[in-house]
């Protein structure tokens, strides 16, 4: 269907009193047999699916607003709206609705809505005029008019009738004429009454009245009436602010007069809602829902009109990136784009997608790269807000842009590096901007929002890019502040835990804490890349220097970084920690903390408790071997005694395994002799031969594998045991009997701290399984580092 007159957007009002866009399609009015009546049907223009099917009920109140909107309620708290592309289409459907209901299309509302509280009284209301009778619009009757307007607010029926009366008699403009007279005469009493009247008319919540009150001819007089609040000693000067203080800045001249008028109107109405009108009470909170809708649709229209004017936006971005543009002009341009993006938040998701794609096509990201690197703080702050809108909309779009940059530019001016540098150089003592930028960086490097379905390599490619071009910029302040760590052993026992390398400056400490938070996120979500970086840069050692910081929150950040690494239970990390003796600064911090029971104390003990509970054997052995003497005096928790217990259990378990294998090796010689003796006494040769032939392939294959595995250890066997020469392997065969027997292999040599090179013998499998079941020992783990 190509008829643009019937092209509409379908909106529904959600629980937060905000309009949700349900889609774009084409509307028609058709008799639907199933619904037994004429209905409004909207079919999606994308796939023809049914977006809306609504029977035109004779008792439903339909309202026409702003020439292109039709609004109605179908059930309790379920409001619908059709927003037409063209006025002609709206008029056509409105006439059809009025025809079904038998109403005059000249009216902007078809029914008087009746709520439940008044339904019971409708029979008692005598037949009267359709409208409320208004007093003559004269100075002497202002008090009477104010009382009337105030009295109807509690009754939905009377509100509707008063609104119709005000529209039909052009009453609003007459009242505003009286306002000018009262102001000329300085008639304060009359001005106070006019304040009550205009405020009450706004609370009637009628779009048709808003169209009149917010027109160019009337809006400043409406603002004037609202200046004279009886509760104030002196009137506010809102008109002076709107006309003199608030300046409308056209960064690029707007030639469309309708667009200019819409921008002015929206700003002033927003000012009335946010500044002039008092915060509505619980009773009044729904009175201004139509005012919210009025602003909502205005903003949608402004964004749409600007978006469609490609010449205007192209000029904006051309001037924004032009080196010849002066600083004040560029500041205005950036603020315009920021406000433009803020307005776009009123759009529904599919419309917002189109909006940001338009900005991307016009070059918003290259422009941001330039302005975010400028010295002007206001420009940088506005650019950061724009960047946050883009990252929240589509992290993938930003990632795609930055990955194309290295081919065209130096590392220093990459967009992500510009963002990181701005975070590092934030001059705010509280680092408000740095915190915002850190959140945006975390969104960009979060694998959870990398779209594997559309681009399977996005995660790998972007993380490789980030660690190659950006990670060194992020970690530069951390490495610079931990460059010359003094050996902790040089610190005297009981001395204050202050390392001259650690930053005393609170702002620097906050920055390092932010960087550590981001690195901790990387440990959790980037397995391979961050592991390689930590190993290559010896990063954990540098981070643990901060355990000596006088700022406890920074020491906790360093500890949290290590805790996340240990929490992965990765043996590569464990070996790195053991080799570097990286528990030493943590244990020094625990001992320096003394008997204070604080967060640092609890966090360190939790780290060791985790190692104990998860039974990380390599770390337990390292801690007990190297630090137990320093820790054994800590008895208010059982953590360190528990670590010692785990260590002793593991040593006992290894000893038992070693002794068992020695015992098995000795017993095999005796078993072999018995086997040969039994074989000689066995007269029933056929079953034996058959059994041995069946077992031959399995036993011999296992024996050869075992023999190869033990060959290297055969020469180092202990005790008086000597290897059996090859000739001792008896293989006898004759016509009636064939006897095959695999002989025992030398015992495995014993290593000081761990069992290595153990061999599973063919004849010993069942015994070994039974022994392991009795002892309930866990599966073999990688050997402990010694």
Automatic annotation (TrEMBL):
It comes from the Eukaryota. It holds the Pfam family EVH1_PP4R3. GO terms for biological process: DNA damage response. Residues 672-686, 761-775 have a biased composition (Acidic residues). One of its GO terms (cellular component) is protein phosphatase 4 complex. One of its GO terms (molecular function) is protein phosphatase activator activity. Residues 672-692, 710-786 are annotated as: Disordered. Residues 727-745 have a biased composition (Low complexity). Residues 1-104 form the WH1 domain. Regulatory subunit of serine/threonine-protein phosphatase 4. PANTHER family: ATP SYNTHASE GAMMA-RELATED (PTHR23318), SERINE_THREONINE-PROTEIN PHOSPHATASE 4 REGULATORY SUBUNIT 3B (PTHR23318:SF18). Belongs to the SMEK family. This is Serine/threonine-protein phosphatase 4 regulatory subunit 3. It comes from Cynoglossus semilaevis. The lineage of its organism: Eukaryota, Metazoa, Chordata, Craniata, Vertebrata.
